[in-house]
Amino acid sequence: MEIKVAKHAGFCFGVKKAIEIAEEVAKNNDKTYVYGQLVHNEKVISDLEKKGIIFVDNINDVPQNAVTVLRAHGEPGTTYQILEKKLITKGKNLNDATCPLVTLVHNVAIKLKSNGYEVILFGKRNHPEAIGTSYHLKGNDTFIVEEPEQYRVVFDYITENKFEKVAIVSQTTMSVYGYQKLIENINSLLGNEKFEEISLSLRNLDKKYGFVDTICNPTKQRQSDTDELARESEIVIVIGGKNSSNSKELYAKCREFGVESYFIQSQEQLQKEWFSGKEKIGVTAGASTPDYLIDEVVERIREITS
Ligand code: SF4
Questions:
Q1: Considering only CA atoms, which residue is closest to atom 2 of ligand 1?
Q2: What are 254-293's pLDDT values in tens digits?
Q3: Do 106 and 207 sit in the same domain of this protein?
Q4: Rounded Cα gap, residues 68 and 89, in angstroms
């Protein structure tokens, strides 16, 4: 029996950095507040709570003047405004762990908008990253498309509103295949003018319809490694937090491929019967899964299959 762990599995650099920042700040302060789930992984959150970090889901619950860390997913400007009123500011007591690749999406969205584009977001409506990016567009009125199958609604939105220029950007953690599919689907309904790629440098902003590839590289690496794993394995175990968008994408990928697959949060959920008669076992994990959880899962698979 062979257990193969995907080459790129677990923490991405953005999540690693956010955790390092939170731990460092907590070491030097009696109380450290983090707004929202720092990473979408229940185990990691509970480990950080044990180190004295206080997580709040409502920004109003951050006390006045409190030492605060902002998560990797990026925040709307309103978060900074509320914190400023509480005397929490950068350079003083605000530690911003926003991933630079999320900031890049914000900057792309802002530039497209200021160049006359109606910007549509391919993302998950309730995901903090999508909420943060929407702030730079039309706030709650930003058009968000969650699935490639919703292409007709996008087409109707574009044609009914007769926008002069339309651009699509993606949340960093969406499916690469799903994004391609969405563009292809919309293009199948359009006439001569189709959506074409605009490079990340945004040099050419005169296309009527354009899309920018803003899915981050760590997400792409995890997705392509999972493709390979699904092809080679008889069963794939995907480890990730219940709310982790990129982990759910990896699981969906395995299911689409048709390989037997299970989405778990930790080794306790593994069941012996899943592995009966299997010789090739694949293990992968989303960007918010720590290495020790991956190691524990591999160890437990070895135990129950030996
Ligand atoms: S998934 Fe990508 S964008 Fe999100 S924190 Fe990781 S590297 Fe940054």
A1: 216
A2: 999 999 999 999 999 999 999 999 999 999 999 889 999 9
A3: yes
A4: 9
**Alpha carbons 138 and 57: distance in angstroms, whole number:** 23
Q: What is the pLDDT of residue 246?
A: 87
Atom of ligand 1 nearest to the CA of 102: 3
What is the distance between the alpha carbons of residues 70 and 72, in angstroms, rounded to a whole number? Answer: 7
Q: How far apart are CA 58 and CA 52, in angstroms?
A: 18
Indicate whether 234 and 130 sit together in one domain: no
Quick one: pLDDT band at residue 38, thresholds 50, 70, 90? Answer: confident
> How many structural domains comprise the chain?
3
Q: What is the pTM of this model?
A: 0.91
Per the structure, the complete domain to which residue 23 belongs is given by 13-98
pLDDT of residue 179 exceeding 90, the answer is: yes
For residue 214 and ligand 1, the question of a CB distance below 6 A is answered with: no
* CA dist., res. 8 & res. 223, Å (int): 9
Cα 60 from Cα 88, distance rounded (Å): 12
Q: Tell whether 94 and 69 lie within a shared domain.
A: yes
Active-site annotation holds for 24: no
Q: Say how far apart CA 35 and CA 78 lie, in whole Å.
A: 13
- Show which of 98, 129, 144 is a domain's final residue: 98
Q: Give the CA angle between residues 281, 247, 250 to the nearest 5°.
A: 55
Cβ atoms within 10 A of the Cβ of 243, count? 17
Q: Given 75, 118, 129, 249, which residue is catalytic?
A: 129
Residue 39 has pLDDT above 90, yes or no: no
Is residue 302 predicted with pLDDT exceeding 90? yes
Pocket of ligand 1 contains residue 132 by CB under 6 Å: no
Whichever domain contains 56, its CATH number is 3.40.50.11270
Q: Are residues 94 and 108 in the same domain?
A: no
